[in-house]
Amino acid sequence: MTNLNKVVLAYSGGLDTSVILKWLQDEYHCEVVTFTADIGQGEELEPARAKALALGVKEIYIEDLREEFVREFVFPMFRANALYEGEYLLGTSIARPLIAKYLVEIANRCGADTVAHGATGKGNDQVRFELGAYALRPDIKVIAPWREWQLTSREKLLAYAQQHGIPIEQKRGTQSPYSMDANLLHISYEGGVLEDPWAEPEEEMWRWTLSPLKAPDQPQTLELEFVKGDIVAIDGQSMSPAQVLTHLNKVAGDHGVGRVDLVENRYVGMKSRGCYETPGGTVMLKAHRAMESLTLDREVAHLKDELMPRYASLIYNGYWWSPERKLLQQLIDSSQETVNGTVRVKLYKGNVLVTGRKSETHSLFDTRIATFEDDKGAYNQRDAEGFIRLHALRLRLGARLHHLHF
Questions:
Q1: Residue 291's Cα: distance from chain center in Å?
Q2: Where does 75-139 show beta strands of DSSP type E?
Q3: Which of 8, 71, 184, 210 is the most buried (most CB within 10 A)?
Q4: How far apart are CA 319 and CA 295, in angstroms?
Q5: Active site (catalytic) residues
Q6: How does pLDDT run across 362-379, given as a tens digit for each residue?
Q7: How far apart are the first and last CA of the chain?
Q8: CA distance 143 to 124
Q9: What does each C-alpha distance from 334 to 80, 260, 330, 337, 342 come to in angstroms?
Q10: What is the pLDDT of residues 148-187, one digit of tens each?
């Protein structure tokens, strides 16, 4: 058994991490410090403090990270238009580097040499937490109890909790059948009936979004103001990053926007079926691409699209703190200097429809050139003939060679 000085545990106060807390105390005979992050999961966090105190924890950290989460992690990711495997908006993935950052910061603050987390050995989160911790403090020790202990089921966890007097509010038979993760960007669902990729999710499962079938018959229009690729105001009202996302979650969720049901490829090798609600993020992505369509040079926009899958994979696989992600971020952020203006969207029964975009300062759209009416000499259409003949040269040469052989 490794000799430990002090362990900082990523602690939610739920069954898993409450058992982990006691297990660390008993198995490693070490002092445990708890860290609970408020990243908008919508749960009361003070009960976590009471549970930690009841288990003898002397140092308890509860941090409100909602603004930092959106400003320093979600917004930079959306500047890249990041989608993993074409569908997943990376709601869980982008929260993990922030939690890893604070695990290390608190360890440094309180003199701990070890951090611990409750991620399982089958998932992606163990990779994300630990890659982040090692990138930020190379000598840190990491404990992942799910890779060590024999408590391999919920029943065993409940029995352990009962045996050791660990208070668990949720009683047998009343817990959600799904494994869920929530933050300001999304809520995810895995497990239960979802383990069959053919099984349709139950309507009762969804928590943030109204069914598109039951959404209002009247659409709702929003005007989103962008500055350097980030939304700074909605319908003329200035908002902080967390306020933007909170507002969009509510409005878009009320119109059935943001549901996704997918099978994804985990970094550890297996396929996993998950359902996600990302109402605000769905609006943000659509609007951001619309703003870029007006203000980005064609080749810059195309280069961003080529780099995006690599950037998304880096986040999904836990490499937020890697030098390559940071380098890509510099390029992406540089491209956003001109992404300023307003996008108008209409929300209607699960859809986000872009109905207008404008930029007083950085629009590359020239009506004089693009018009189908008389452009008064702004564009010489005869120039297109030489353009086409030059680009056709290799095709013509190849065709001549083909005809020689047949």
A1: 21
A2: 114-116
A3: 8
A4: 29
A5: 16, 96, 125, 179
A6: 999 998 888 788 778 788
A7: 76
A8: 16
A9: 11, 31, 6, 6, 19
A10: 999 988 899 999 999 998 887 654 445 678 889 999 999 9
